[in-house]
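W.,

You were right to be curious about this one. When I first looked at the sequence I had no strong expectations either way, so I just let the prediction run and decided to look at it fresh. Below is the sequence, 164 residues in total, followed by the output.
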Amino acid sequence: MRRTRRAGKLALVLALSFSLFAGFALIDPHEAEAAWSEKKANAILNTARQQLGKPYKFGASTSTTRYFDCSSFTKYVFGKHGITLPRSSKEQAKRGVFVARKNLKKGDLVFFDVSSKRAGIDHVAIYAGDGLIIHTYQTGVGVTYTKLSKKYWSDRYVTARRVL
């Protein structure tokens, strides 16, 4: 009887161990990647949020964090997380993979055509979730959140890229 109990306990321990091990083996790699990407995106957005209110300066140097233009801002924020972006918004728009507007996720780069003088991409922002972007674009405003649905930005939306 003692032997039977011992064998039963051993079988139970082995079954539980196998179940736990099998559970780890069955983790969906897409779920793991999504969790990693969300964690990285939240870290990037936290870094961006720390810059709220910093002044806008067109052509801002990438060697300073006292002020930013749109692409020096994104270059700085992503760079703090090991992601190297080119200097200009037009070049940044060539990185990563295309994302449809309806599929935007936190941390995606969003690109706009805001100049009436030249056609093409000339502004970049970071999608912050819940329909918001974080960016810098105007003297006196600096780094701020804006609703992507705001007519000005919605009308000038060009594309988005995922670089995570």
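Here's what jumped out at me. The helical segments are 2-25, 29-49, 70-79, 89-92, 151-156. And, maybe more interesting for your project: The first strand starts at residue 97 and ends at 98.

Coffee later to discuss?

I.
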